[in-house]
């Protein structure tokens, strides 16, 4: 797996992972709130016998019926709830130096990336191009964040302390790793 010294080139890994956890929590919370609002929209309560598309499907140019769109919105809310839970676990894992919590976020991040790629492929089948492009770019950013998460997990497994009370005179956590890799 790839290694990084810093998160986003200049931010220390411990602080960067806390920021990633907070940003992921906020994105998941906003996405779940928007999905819940769209699910309980008053337009849905009109006439349920009509086979008219959901307003989101109409706005996106997709041919999806209201029941299908409601199932998709329910799945999005469920994934966002888990996303928020694992984001909190990431923050707690970095603050308390718990590698198992960081590994759980890493595993969920891989599953989330796969789900996003599958969703973008399904949208491509519906001849919608701009949403899959956005999802693909977001997945690439998520993969970079997962590399940073995995780096911290591996370094914690080797005994590096990532808590915030480290001092400037502490040794670089990756210095010994690269020396060992070149000697082997």
What would a concise description of this structure say?
This protein is mainly alpha-helical and 184 residues long. It contains six helices and two strands.
How would you sum up this structure, described in words?
It is built from 6 helices and 2 strands; from the N terminus they run ββαααααα. By secondary structure, it is mainly alpha-helical. The protein has one domain (11-158). It has a two-stranded antiparallel ribbon. A hairpin with a 3-residue loop joins strand 1 (6-7) and strand 2 (11-12). Helix 1 (13-39) runs antiparallel to helix 3, helix 3 runs antiparallel to helix 4 (99-125) and helix 4 packs antiparallel against helix 5 (130-157). The mean pLDDT is 79.
Major sheet description: 2 strands, antiparallel
Supply Rg.
Answer: 20 Å
The total number of structural domains is 1
Which strands sit side by side, in order, in the main sheet? Answer: 1-2
**Secondary-structure element sequence?**
EEHHHHHH
Q: What's the N-to-C terminus distance?
A: 17 Å
Query: How many β-strand runs?
Result: 2
Fraction in helix: 55-70%
Average pLDDT number = 79
Task: Name the poorly predicted regions.
Answer: none
**Number of helical stretches of at least 4 residues:** 6
What spatial form do the alpha-carbon principal axes imply? Answer: elongated
Q: What class, by secondary structure content?
A: mainly alpha
Classify the beta-strand content into a percent band.
Answer: under 5%
- Say what oligomer this is: single chain
């Amino acid at each position: 797996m790839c290694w990084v010294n810093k998160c986003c080139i200049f931010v220390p890994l411990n602080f960067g992972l806390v920021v990633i956890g907070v940003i992921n929590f906020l994105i998941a919370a906003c996405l779940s709130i928007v999905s819940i609002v769209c699910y309980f929209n008053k337009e849905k309560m009109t006439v349920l016998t009509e086979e008219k598309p959901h307003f989101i499907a109409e706005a996106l140019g997709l041919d999806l019926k209201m029941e299908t769109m409601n199932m998709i919105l329910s799945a999005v809310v469920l994934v966002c709830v888990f996303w928020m839970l694992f984001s909190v676990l990431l923050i707690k894992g970095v603050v308390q130096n718990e590698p198992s919590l960081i590994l759980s976020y890493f595993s969920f991040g891989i599953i989330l990336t796969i789900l996003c790629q599958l969703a973008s492929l399904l949208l491509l089948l519906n001849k919608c191009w701009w949403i899959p492009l956005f999802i693909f770019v977001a997945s690439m950013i998520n993969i970079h964040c997962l590399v940073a998460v995995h780096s911290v997990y591996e370094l914690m497994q080797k005994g590096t302390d990532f808590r915030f009370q480290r001092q400037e005179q502490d040794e670089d956590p990756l210095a010994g790793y690269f020396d060992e890799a070149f000697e082997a």
